[in-house]
Specification:
Blueprint (H helix, E strand, L loop, with lengths): L2 E6 L1 E10 L2 E10 L2 H9 L3 E5 L4 H4 L4 H4 L4 E5 L3 H5 L2 H6 L6 H10 L3 E5 L25 E2 L6 E8 L2 E2 L16 E5 L2 E2 L4 E6 L2 E9 L2 E6 L10 H4 L4 H12 L2
Parallel strand pairs: 1-4, 1-5, 5-6, 6-14
Antiparallel strand pairs: 2-3, 7-11, 8-10, 9-12, 12-13, 13-14
Helix pairs in contact: 1-8
């Protein structure tokens, strides 16, 4: 059974309600990983999910630990969450660079998938900053280094431009998406599908491993209800994982 490490796709929300002289706060926690976890488990994968706020404690601290997984997925998690463990930020202690670990993991044969969102690629306001990390070395696309969101409230549909095993058994009646991270194709990589002329799905080889990007979201809001309930949703992710781990 192939082991998949899914990192990110969680958030906290803290709101302040103001009513005249009075105010109160409201807090909530959310996860957007349930759709893909269900899809992968139904396909026979062993999925470990690390929430954003648990990365410090639970993300592998060595290359050997990371090699226990066939595939690493980063979804809607900014590079600061990987690069700033509490003992470094608060106590000035050294720690392994998790971005370097992922790069070296792919170099030695691991599979890597980055999924889009507000905290993927360069991200909202350029906050995710993956262009400044070693993750950029393994991506088939170039991060913009600025706010890279392309919001599409009218809905936009991707276009397959190259036949590839990840599309096997999937009809071309793709559902719409409500936005994506804008990136630039890199020489030597393969763009398999576009969205508004920009990379939507692209892949490359790095060392002994492979990486692939899916520049929209695996879950709402960019991933529309039509997408997460699409009959080919499980098949798509299964095909992607099979390709990246073969």
């Amino acid at each position: 059974m192939k082991k998949v490490l899914l990192v990110g796709e969680t958030w906290f929300v803290h709101k302040t309600h103001i009513k005249g002289f009075d105010k109160f706060t409201e807090s909530s926690y959310g996860e957007g990983a349930s759709w893909i976890i269900e899809a992968l488990k139904s396909g026979g994968y062993d999925v470990t999910h690390i929430a954003n706020h648990r990365v410090d404690e639970e993300f592998p601290s060595s290359l050997e630990e990371l090699k226990a997984y066939s595939l690493v997925i980063l979804s809607d998690i900014g590079s600061n969450t990987l690069l700033l463990p509490s003992s470094t930020f608060n106590q000035s202690k050294t720690n392994p660079n998790k971005c370097d670990l992922i790069r070296d993991y792919v170099l030695e044969g691991g599979g890597f998938l980055m999924v889009g969102g507000y905290m993927a690629f360069s991200g909202i306001d350029g906050t995710s900053r993956y262009e400044e990390t070693s993750i950029q070395e393994i991506l088939p696309v170039k991060c913009l280094g600025k706010d890279d969101r392309s919001e599409r409230p009218e809905g936009i549909t991707p276009k397959i431009i190259e036949n590839h095993p990840i599309f096997e058994g999937i009809e071309e009646n793709w559902p719409h998406f409500l936005g994506y991270n804008k990136t630039i194709s890199l020489e030597g990589s393969k763009t398999l599908a576009t969205i508004n002329g920009d990379p939507f799905i692209a892949t490359t080889e790095f060392g002994k491993g492979k990486s692939l990007v899916f520049t929209s979201d695996m879950a709402p809001h960019w991933g529309s209800e039509e997408f997460v309930n699409w009959e080919y949703y499980p098949k798509l992710w299964d095909n992607i994982i099979q390709y990246l781990t073969s």
